[in-house]
Amino acid sequence: MTISRRQFIKGSLSVAAAAGLPFSLNRPALAALVERKDRPWEDGYRNLFKGERKVRTINMPNCTGSCAWNVIVKDGIVLRVEQPLDYPDDEYNPRGCMKGATYHRRVYSPNRVKFPMKRIGPRGAGQWQRISWDEALDFIASEIKRIAAKYGQNTIWVYPPVPATGIVKQGAGFRFASVNGFGIGTFYNWYGDLPLAHPITWNVQTEEHEFKDLLNTKYAIIWGSDMLQTRMPDAHFFTDIRAKGVKLVYIAPYFDPTASAVDEWVRVRPGTDGALALGMCHVVVKRGLTDDNHLLKTTSGPLLVRNDNQKYLKATDVLADGDAKAFMIWDKAAGKAMPDTYFSDKPALTGTFDVTLKDGKKVGCSTAHTLLLKKLEDYDPKTVSEITGVPADVIERIAVEYASAKPASIWAGTGINHWYHGDLIGRATIELACLTGNVGVNGGGVSPWAGQYLMRLNPTDYFFPKKEGGKPDDRYRAVPLDTAYVVNGPTETMANKDKLWRQIRCIWAAGGNLLGEASDQSNLTRKVLPQIELIVSPEIEMSTTAQLADIVLPVVSWFELPYDIATTPSHPYIQLAEGSIEPMFEAKTDIEIYYEMCKRLGTGDIFKFNRPEPAIELLLETGGPQVKGITFERLKKERCIKVNLPSSPYASFTEEIQGKKKFKTASGRQELYKDEDRFIQYGEQLPVHKEPHVATPYGPSKVWSEAKKERNPLYEKYPMVYHARHTRWSVHSSWRTTEEVLKLDDIGQPLLELNPVDAAKRGIVAGDWATAYNEHGFVKAKVKLRESVPPGAVLIYFGWQRDQIREGHWNALTHNDINPIHEIYFIPNVWGPVSGHFDKLCEVKKS
Ligand code: SF4
C-alpha cells in the first residue's frame, strides 16, 4: 500500500489530535500546507542533486597521502568533492585534508595556464605571447635539435617529479628522456627526502612500515617530523596509540603542532639528533638491554674487521681458494676464522682475534660489534647532554623506555635527513633499533615516509622501453645527471665524473616546480639559468618555474586526466585516478605532449603512447610480484587494491629477520659497519656524531672532542639557524595560491618566525618587516613571534611562489654543500647527494 504525502500528513494530524498532542503550527497554517498544490520550491530542492555524477579518483600531490576523493560533477562542472570512506582497511577511512577538499578550486583557479605561451621579454618579466600548440611544439623541437647538435643530446635535461604521484603521467617524463637519449635529473635525494642511511645499512632505497603498523607498537618515537601538519590523513594513528596507553615521544627542536600532541617532547639542539641516538645506544649497552641474538644473526656485528686497514676480512685474505665475496666470522667452536653464513649462531659477536692470512702473516681482527661498542664509549649521557642540550637523565630514561618496550618504533622524517650529515643521524637511529632488536618486527622499525617515491611496482618496461630486436635488457636509457650537480657541480669527488658531468643547456621542468622549490636558489638563478638556452614548463598553474620559463604549456589537472595510477609508502594500496571533466581551455595530458614532441623528434614510434590506458596495462603486466593479479579492468571496478606484500600491516624486513632471506647488502647483513675507502677516510665506518657542516657555533663537521674546542667563524656573522619548513597549508608550492586555503594561513603571506628573545635583541616587534640573510641570499617578510621557536633559530613555512614574496626567496639562503660520502656511488634517487638545506645559518635585521 502506498500513502500519499497528503494522506500521511492528514493521518498524522488526526493521530496527534486524538492523542491530545500540542502543535506548534496553528490550524490555518496546517491547512495551507495540506491544501496547497503548487510547491515549486520542493522541486527546486529535489533537483539540486539531480543530474549529478560521482567519480572516485585520487589526489596526487607529493605529500604521501594519496587520498581518494569522490568528485561530484554536474553539467561538466565539478561542484564539490567528498571522501568516499571505501578503503578496505577501516583504519585508513576517511582520509583527506582541506587541500584535497579544495582541489577543484585549483582546477578553476584564475592562475591556470590556459594556452601555450612564449616568452617575449626578459626571463621572469611576465611578458608572454599566446601561441598555438603546433607553434609551441615545433619551436621546442627545433630548439632541442639545435641545442643537441651544438652541445650533445644529453645536455637536454628532463627534471622529473616523484613518479608515484601518477606513475603514467610522471613516468612519461622518464620515457621521454629515455627514448631520446636526454639527460634526466634526480628528485628524491635532491629534495633531501632520501634517508641515505637506508641504502648505506640495507642497500635499499628506503624501507618503512605502513602507518597502520603503528597500532602494533608498544612505544613510539617521532624523530624530526611534524607528523600532525605534514601527514594529516594518518596523524590519527599517533593519537590512537596514545589512547591505547602507548607512550609517544617527539624529538625535535620546535614546539610545533606535533609537540603539542605527544606524551613527551624532547627539545634537541638542531642537527645533533645523531648524538642523542648514540647516547641512547650507550645507555642500552651499559644497562645490558641489547638484543644479542638480533645483532649476531642479522647485523654486521660478528663480521671480522682487520685492525691494520679497517676493512672487512674476506675469505680471499685467508684461504687460497676463498670466495672474494665471502665475509669472515670467528667460529667459536672451531676457534678460527671461517666464511660467514647468514643467520648462523656460531660466530663470536665480540672479541679480537689473531687471524693467519694466506701468506702466513698474522693480523689482528675485531668483530664489527666490538668496534661499535668501543665507539659508543664516547657517547655517555653527560657528554651527549653537552652536545644536544637534552638533560642526561632524560637521555637515560627514554633509552631504557624504548629498549624495554618491545616492539618499539621510530618514525623519522625529513627533519633528520635535511642535514649535511643526515646519513650519520639516520644511521645512529638505525643502530638504536638494531641494538634493541626492533628491526623486522611489526610495531618496530625506523620509518621515514619522506616523499612519495615508492611505486610498489617495477616500472622499467614503461620508463626505459626495450629496444626492438635487441638483447633482453637492451633498452633506451636516459643519461642521469644528479640535480645537485646541475646546480652545484661538478665536484672532485663525484662518482663517474668523466662519464656523467656536462653543462646542461635545456631544462624540461616536467613538474615539481623546480625553479621555485629547489634549494640553492641563489646558485640556480645566478649561475645555472644564464647558461640554459631553453626552459620548457608544462604546468597547470603559473608557478615560479612557469614564470621563469621560455615556453609554458598548459597541462590538465587531475580531474581532467583520462586515467592514472598512484601509490604511496603510507598505505599499501594501488589506486586508480580517473578524470571527471573534459580538459579545460587548451590543456593537454603530459603523455600526449611527450608523444607529440617525440613525433617531431623522430622518436614517436618508440615513445608509442599518447593515452594512459595502454601504459597502465603495461605497468601492471610487467610490474612484478607486488601487482600480480591486479589488472586495469580490476582497478576500474575496485578502484583501490591492496598490493601483494609479505606482511600485513606491512613491516620492513620481516623475512630477513626470520632468516628466510638475506639482506641485499654485500655481506647479506644489516651493515652498521661500512668499509668503503671513503667511510674509512672520513672516520665514518660506524655512526658517529659530527657537528653540522655549517649550522653550528662549534667546529663544523668535527667530532665533539675536537669541535667543542673551536668556534665556527661563520657563526659569529650569522648566529641563527635558518629553516624553511613544510606547512599544513600547502604541499610544497601546491595550494599556496588557493584562496580558500590561503585565507586560513595566518595573514596569507610568508612570515619569519622568531623567538621573542631574538627579536628583542634586534629591536624587532611582531608585524615588522625583516630580512633574513646570509652569504648566499635573503628573504624579506613580516615577523611573527613565537616561544615555540627555540632561541637562535628562524623559521619560515615555505612553498610561496615567486610573486608572493616581497623580496628575495625563502630558498635563497640555502646552499647544497655536497657530502663526499653521498658520492661514493651514484644510483639515481637511491645513492646520491642529499640536500642538506637545514644545515644553514643566517642573521635577521629589521627592514
Ligand atoms: S593533500 Fe595529501 S593529505 Fe591532503 S587530501 Fe590530498 S593527498 Fe590527502
TrEMBL record:
Family: Belongs to the prokaryotic molybdopterin-containing oxidoreductase family.
Any Pfam family the entry gives: Molybdop_Fe4S4
DNA-binding found in the keyword field: no
Molecular-function GO term, any one: oxidoreductase activity
UniProt cross-references to InterPro entries, sorted A to Z: Asp_de-COase-like_dom_sf (IPR009010), MoPterin_dinucl-bd_dom (IPR006657), Mopterin_OxRdtase (IPR006656), Mopterin_OxRdtase_4Fe-4S_dom (IPR006963), Prok_Mopterin_Oxidored (IPR050612), TAT_signal (IPR006311), TAT_signal_bac_arc (IPR019546)
Cofactor: Mo-bis(molybdopterin guanine dinucleotide)
Keywords: Iron, Iron-sulfur, Metal-binding, Molybdenum, Oxidoreductase, Signal
Domain of life where this protein originates: Bacteria
SUPFAM superfamilies: ADC-like, Formate dehydrogenase/DMSO reductase, domains 1-3
The protein, known as: Anaerobic dehydrogenase typically selenocysteine-containing
The organism of origin for this protein: Denitratisoma oestradiolicum
Gene3D superfamilies, A to Z: 2.40.40.20, 3.40.50.12440, 3.40.50.740, Dimethylsulfoxide Reductase, domain 2, Formate dehydrogenase/DMSO reductase
